[in-house]
Amino acid sequence: MSKFHASGNGTLTDRYVAEVVRRIPAGRRGDVADELRATIADTVEARGSAAPETAEREVLTEMGDPIRLAAQYADRPLALIGPGLYPTYVRLLTVLLSTVLPMVIALSAVLDVMDGRGADEVIGGAVGAVLSVGAQMIAWLTVVFALIERSDKRSDTRSGAVRGAWTPDDLPDRGVPKEHGAAAYAGVAWHALLIALIVWQHTAQPYQTDGGLRLDVLNPDLWSGWIWPILAGLVGLVTLDAIRAVRVWTRSLAAWTVGAEAAFALPLAWVLHRHELFNPAFLSDANGGWQTPQFVYTVAAVGVLAGGAHRVLKRFRETRD
Questions:
Q1: In the beta sheet, which residues pair with residue 207?
Q2: Are the C-beta atoms of residues 234 and 100 closer than 8 Å to each other?
Q3: pLDDT tens across 88-106, in order?
Q4: Using CB atoms within 10 A of its CB, is residue 269 exposed (0-12), middle (13-18) or buried (19+)?
């Protein structure tokens, strides 16, 4: 057998086979790996090339994208979320439903108890939160991953429009850890929690005055303006964190982070600076007339801007192109 060219942390063949078999059922990986290696080796040797490295690269290029080949071996029908993304989709959904959703439910239950509601009302509110917030999480995460999936398909089929035809240079090095996986999952959970809390406090109006009046915690006037770019920025950050969990992080994706962070941080800092984030009626009732010092809002606004700038710089440092 020819001695193939080593690149990165393994031969091109090893890296190609690894990309294929990691996307098919575990019980078939050994047989498929052996079959692929034998096919590649036989094809390379049949060409009788004086440069086996060149022949190996040509054979792998002709075999095509390993993701497509894996789908053929898995014999799976077309789906909204394909086999390449489905495991990460399930992991992220598990994180959201096991961390963010319980936090929202617990907060809702605590506020209901503090309002003096009975056990039946507390349980009813918790069930309502599970159905409404949980359904929103599942729906929006599915939409995000479906868009990522369709983006991959378009970039595969539109040669040169988004990226060129697949070549062995697209193979990742074997043994390279997914450095940002855990951080990306945490980012999705955190930003999704913020979205859920913003929407929930507006629809559920969790704060109740002594007179029984239910209030938003955030300024309800924001829903006529600044809350929408803030929510759009958070949705963008959720999407980018989801992409970061399943793809190599590139400079073009980092550039999108600038837009998402700007949409979130700039209006949030502005409304903080103008003391317009919280509902005045809520503050008056909760603080008993005590006025929050100006410097608190200033520090908070600067912190939001500094945090956004730090995250943007960090994303550019994480790029690989």
A1: 215
A2: no
A3: 777 778 877 777 778 777 7
A4: buried
